[in-house]
Amino acid sequence: MRSLHADLLLQRLQQTTGGQLRLRVCQCLRTAMADGSIPPGSRLPATRDLARELGVSRNTVLYAYEQLQAEGYLQAKTGSGTSVAEILPDSYLTATAGQPGSPHRYVDEVALSRRGSKLMGYANASPHQWGAFVPGVPDVREFPHALFSAIQRRINRDPLHHHLTYSHQGGSYDLQQALVEYLRVTRSVQCDVDQILITEGTHQAMDLIAKMLCDPGDRVWFEEPGYWGARNVLRINGADILPVRVDQHGLVPLAGGKGASPKLIFVTPSHQYPLGAVMSLPRRKQLLALAREQGSWIIEDDYDSEFRFAGNPIPALQGLEPDAPVIYLGTFSKTLYPALRIGYMVLPKPLAPAMKLACAELFRGGHFLIQTALAQFMREGHYNAHIRRMRLLYGRRRAYLVSLITRYLGPEFLHEYDHDAGLHLVLVLPNGCDDVKIASHALRRGVSVRPLSQYFMHRQSRRGLLLGFACVEESAMLPAFNVLRDCLIKAGLCPAEPNSANV
């Protein structure tokens, strides 16, 4: 069984790029000691053991230990091994910024708040946001940039004065109106313009919700496994997050009497992230009834509902009942491109005025010109046409990846909850394996996948890999898949030759 120190270092090594491996290992150890993730006095694994767990040479770990011992971070005693110093060097904790390019210039040179340090310990944002098999990233090359630029030029030629100042009404009225029309038809969402609040994306929406509806310590039900980004936003706002398990029908509501009633219930009912389950109608009605009974707000993150490749469209939870206690979140990051940074909330009418005022007070808002261009893009039919085209493209890519998995690994490697939708699929691995280590090995060879275990709050989590297929052309998919398969072969998780029954 791998040590907790190796778990920590493997995760942090995935977030650092460039430079020699021995320097990166040294940096990750140093920052982990400085931010308290490895506390003073902690005994570290033997160099041989840590090297084996990280999948690096022993010399790499020896260099890091010797360097940190010279700097005063580590102490070694014969017969007692290597441990973290009880008092860390003041020169590191209070140092001024080094010279440009200095190897000792780190973010951790500044003193973070307790919640800031806690966030750094849970941070999972990856520097790798393109290529095989990055999950959740659309093919930004396919967006009609020339067409959208022409619309922007037309609007920018003679902009209205209210398009050039701060936002106070929750964003561009034109985009709000376009969203009302679009959501009513495609998602059965019941709303009017006053209920639409334009945001910078789902993270900003979650931050606003947490600040306005939760006091520190308030209970929040969160899907287990679930999206770590939204969970971290809630965590830094002081929410008491209770992981609630997911089955083939979606989140399983807890029976009454099990702790405090939740203030918020976070769900992805149309395509559970990351497992892919679709919340059944009886489960949706049960969740709505429970929220009304307990005075809870349901946060419905409808992040990629546009991309279903089989079956009928699934209506939003928000539109199932009049005046449902649901805050609906949507985004253009998956349908257009992430750097656009435009998302939206559909707020229950009683919440809308306060939430819009709070958004103006905290974030000021703006980007009216690009929001107005997007509204025009939607009203001229370009948005729906783009989604239809991308649905066909992503469907082909997904089918090809599924065929590779089925042929070379076997159908048992596909997750049972998969519903032929979204921008990623889950590759199932045995529970006893190390998906973090496999992902790290693949990344070193240029293939980026996410370990399923990192989406769980509980350590007794299932193992697997998230494979994004949307931004990978079919011609590039087989070579990348072969790299990943080779990593699985070396980990002893699949045979070197495909099963003839699958061919």
From TrEMBL:
<dbReference type="InterPro" id="IPR036390">
    <property type="entry name" value="WH_DNA-bd_sf"/>
</dbReference>
<dbReference type="InterPro" id="IPR036388">
    <property type="entry name" value="WH-like_DNA-bd_sf"/>
</dbReference>
<dbReference type="Pfam" id="PF00155">
    <property type="entry name" value="Aminotran_1_2"/>
</dbReference>
<comment type="similarity">
    <text>In the C-terminal section; belongs to the class-I pyridoxal-phosphate-dependent aminotransferase family.</text>
</comment>
<dbReference type="InterPro" id="IPR051446">
    <property type="entry name" value="HTH_trans_reg/aminotransferase"/>
</dbReference>
<keyword id="KW-0808">Transferase</keyword>
<keyword id="KW-0238">DNA-binding</keyword>
<dbReference type="GO" id="GO:0003677">
    <property type="term" value="F:DNA binding"/>
</dbReference>
<dbReference type="InterPro" id="IPR000524">
    <property type="entry name" value="Tscrpt_reg_HTH_GntR"/>
</dbReference>
<keyword id="KW-0804">Transcription</keyword>
<keyword id="KW-0663">Pyridoxal phosphate</keyword>
<dbReference type="GO" id="GO:0008483">
    <property type="term" value="F:transaminase activity"/>
</dbReference>
<dbReference type="InterPro" id="IPR015421">
    <property type="entry name" value="PyrdxlP-dep_Trfase_major"/>
</dbReference>
<protein>
    <submittedName>
        <fullName>PLP-dependent aminotransferase family protein</fullName>
    </submittedName>
</protein>
<dbReference type="GO" id="GO:0003700">
    <property type="term" value="F:DNA-binding transcription factor activity"/>
</dbReference>
<dbReference type="InterPro" id="IPR015424">
    <property type="entry name" value="PyrdxlP-dep_Trfase"/>
</dbReference>
<keyword id="KW-0032">Aminotransferase</keyword>
<dbReference type="InterPro" id="IPR004839">
    <property type="entry name" value="Aminotransferase_I/II_large"/>
</dbReference>
<feature type="domain" description="HTH gntR-type">
    <location>
        <begin position="19"/>
        <end position="87"/>
    </location>
</feature>
<keyword id="KW-0805">Transcription regulation</keyword>
<dbReference type="GO" id="GO:0030170">
    <property type="term" value="F:pyridoxal phosphate binding"/>
</dbReference>
<dbReference type="Pfam" id="PF00392">
    <property type="entry name" value="GntR"/>
</dbReference>
